[in-house]
Amino acid sequence: MIIFVATAVEPTWINRMSDWDLLLTNARIATMRDDAPDYGVVGESAALAINDGRIVWIGEQSALGNHKVKESRSLDGRWITPALIDCHTHIVFGGDRAAEFEQRLRGASYEEIARAGGGIMSTVRATRDASADKLFSAAMIRVQSLAREGVATVEVKSGYGLDRDTEIRMLEVARKLGQESAVDIRTTLLAAHTVPPEFANNADDYIDLICDELLPEVAQRKLADAVDGYCESIAFSGPQIAKLFATAAKHDLPVKLHADQLSDSGGAELAAYFGALSADHLEYTSQKGVKALFDSGSVAVLLPGAFLTLGETQLPPIDDLRSNGVPIAVASDCNPGTSPICSLRTAMMLASRLFRLTPEECLAGTTRNAARALGLLDDRGTLEPGKRADLAIWDISHPRELAYWTGTPQLADLMIGGHTYVP
Ligand code: DI6
Ligand code: FE
Predict the structure, then answer these.
(1) pLDDT number for residue 65
(2) Residue 259 contacts residue 282 (beta carbons within 8 Å)
(3) pLDDT score for 422
(4) Distance of alpha carbon 276 from alpha carbon 257, whole angstroms
(5) Angle between helical axes of 132-147 and 164-180 (0-180°, round to 10)
(6) How high is the pLDDT of residue 9?
(7) Is residue 103 located within the same domain as residue 226?
(8) Of 123, 188, 308, 344, which is least packed with CB atoms within 10 Å of its CB?
(9) Does residue 290 share a domain with residue 197?
(10) What is the pLDDT of residue 15?
(11) Which atom of ligand 1 lies closest to the CA of 194?
(12) What pLDDT was estimated at residue 415?
């Protein structure tokens, strides 16, 4: 279909060489650009044009010039935001931990369960026992659930294998999730999630195995986009993580860190020292850690699902992060132990209820800052000409509703790379 849209003013940015594939009109648009106030809202009635999967024009409809478009669609006043990005998940795993959930409700602590051989290790056993097909089909259901809420990019960590074969299998399954759905899956090697039983009291040797064998293989086969670790007294020490990160750098892999979740272990400083994309959790991060994150440009990824599930009372240093200008992201941390929450909208709601992030901070945290936490801000996370046309189209009257409601089917359309995706 060829439609000629004729209006008075020439737009400032036009792809003059080609026609446009799709023009969305009569929209409200929240660009979420950080150089614009108030959600980066564009006028009262706005339009957005897409060509070759990229945004080519955004502006007030009255500024739209004459263009040949293959298809034009009126959004009847619906809102467009950047598609959401879940920048921290563990959605590939075997089994579940519902029985532990009951034990915890009866009074057992996370640490007690872990020391009795449950906790992460029970998921490690179930994951080692699961076939790739089984891991894939269970994880695909989680990807689809996230996409039904407007999520177009999901980061997926390994870390429930803790041996060469299972860690590789988890990453292969994660890569396949990306191949078999339009959702973009970014994979992270988290072999340093906890010390496996085979290396009990010998965490150094396990780190050596990761650095000498697993990480080089993963890098060579391009199975991971980043490397993560868990810096905590129950997992790995600062020097052990430093060795891991130095090895990641040698293989040109960016790093991120589970930092200061249960105690101030200097995780934020360590992440910053290595120029990490992000430091995640941060409940116990000090002011020094916050300053270090600002200096390194790392994103603070807040995970209110784990905070809630663990019954944590120590809040991350939100005011310090804000006043120091550290970009804040929000993610689901979906995992069977500490955040059985496969819903980014729920994480947004929890971030505002538990951490008092404003709805705008929650949306920036699942778009612009989540993209930055994955090293993807040049490509997505805000609505700007040149960026990938990953759009969430909502039946809402204002984007503040996105951190307010949960469980309501407000997503009218999810576009990934310029194409509607129905999960
Ligand atoms: N921090 C967490 O909250 C999860 N991993 C991590 O490093 C816990 C994972 C689990 O309990 O299965
Ligand atoms: Fe996590």
Answers:
(1) 86
(2) yes
(3) 96
(4) 7
(5) 40
(6) 40
(7) yes
(8) 308
(9) yes
(10) 44
(11) 7
(12) 98
The count of domains in the chain is 2
Q: Are residues 149 and 297 in the same domain?
A: yes
- 413 alpha carbon to ligand 1 midpoint, in Å? 32
Residue 160 CA, closest ligand 1 atom number: 12
306 within ligand 1 shell (Cβ under 6 A) = yes
Ligand 1, atom nearest to 258 Cα: 7
Residue 158 beta carbon below 6 angstroms from any ligand 1 atom: no
- Considering the domain architecture, whether residues 52 and 100 belong to the same structural domain is answered as no
Residue whose Cα lies nearest atom 9 of ligand 1: it is 337
Which ligand does the CA of 339 lie closest to? Answer: 1
**Residue 119, ligand 1, Cβ within 6 A:** yes
Neighbours of ion ligand 2 (CB under 5 A): 333
Same-domain check for residues 226 and 261: yes
What's the pLDDT at 74? 98
Kindly state whether residues 317 and 176 are assigned to the same domain.
Answer: yes
Helix (H) or strand (E) holding 3: strand 3-5
CB-based contacts of 105, cutoff 8 Å, min separation 6: none
Domain that holds residue 206: 84-373
If you search the block for the tokens 């064998």, which residue do you land on? Answer: 213
What are the C-alpha distances in Å from 25 to residues 30, 51, 100? 14, 15, 50
Residue 237 backbone dihedrals phi, psi, to 5 degrees: -80, 170
Q: Which pLDDT value is given to residue 98?
A: 96
Q: Which ligand is nearest to the CA of 188?
A: 2
The residue whose C-alpha atom lies closest to atom 10 belonging to ligand 1 is: 337
3: how many CB neighbours lie within 10 A of its CB?
A: 12
Spell out, as residue ranges, where the chain has pLDDT lower than 50. 1-17
Task: Please report the beta strands in 61-157, taking only residues with DSSP state E, as ranges in sequence order.
Answer: 67-74, 79-82, 84-86, 151-157
CA–CA separation, 197 and 181 (whole Å):
35
Pocket test for ligand 1, best of 335, 341, 342 (most atoms within 8 A of CB): 335
Residues 248, 109 share a domain: yes
Q: Is the CB of 261 under 6 A from ligand 1?
A: yes
